[in-house]
Specification:
Blueprint: H1 16-29, H2 33-44, E1 49-50, E2 65-66, H3 68-71
Parallel strand pairs: 1-2
């Protein structure tokens, strides 16, 4: 499914510090670790998250997020 976009995408690696930070924030805010990790990855790579997941409202201090219709 992603093959047609392969040349337009970059691979982003997660580092140990990001995982540790996401674990800490996840416990503090009672949020899924994966959601927190995505917010941290977006922040560290100057990216914006496109999501409908309401957990990201509690992570707006870490990274910006928008619903798909807000981008179009």
């Amino acid at each position: 499914m992603l093959f047609p976009f392969e040349k337009q995408t970059d691979k982003i690696m997660v580092n140990k510090e990001q995982v540790l930070e996401s674990t800490k924030i996840s416990k503090e805010r009672n949020l899924p670790k994966g959601d927190v990790l995505h917010a941290i990855i977006a922040r560290d790579n100057d990216l914006v998250l496109i999501t409908r997941d309401n957990h990201f409202k509690k992570l707006k201090d870490i990274s910006l997020h928008y619903k798909p219709e807000e981008i179009i």
